[in-house]
Amino acid sequence: MIVKKLRLQRGWSQDQLSQLSGLSIRTIQRIEKGQNPGLESLKSLAAVFELPITELQGDTDMTTQDREEKSVHTISDHTISVEERLAFYRVQKMRGFYIHLTQYCIIIPILFAINLFTNPSYIWAAWSMLGWGVGLAFHGLRVFNVIKWFGPEWEKRQVEKQLGRKL
User: Fold this and answer.
1) Which domains does the chain have, with CATH numbers?
2) What is the pTM for the complete model shown?
């Protein structure tokens, strides 16, 4: 449960924690539900949260001051903050959206060309453009945090609402 609390305090989704820690989303879900993690999983999570492994194993709570004092994680003599890792993750998501957009912009005109050469009396390519365009629009809204339905912020608010206090 401490992993979920730490994740929610930072406003991360399970997917974001998965990317930062190198663990699968399913592994994070199991740990958050109370399954005991393996040593390698604990090491990965401890590195992301910048805590000793012992704090993740026990039910001890950490103070805000302790978290603020530990803001940098060192890997192979390179200093990478959690914020930088999160920025890399967000850029990776944006890259995926731009690739999706590029594919749309290339393939839709090809479909219209095929449509016009094979059956110009019925424009079926418009349906492809519309369907794919709606999917692309939702992809973009999600990547650029316009749609925040059931995201980590919502989850944090709901937990705080159930507890009747801040995490």
Assistant:
1) 2-79 (1.10.260.40)
2) 0.54
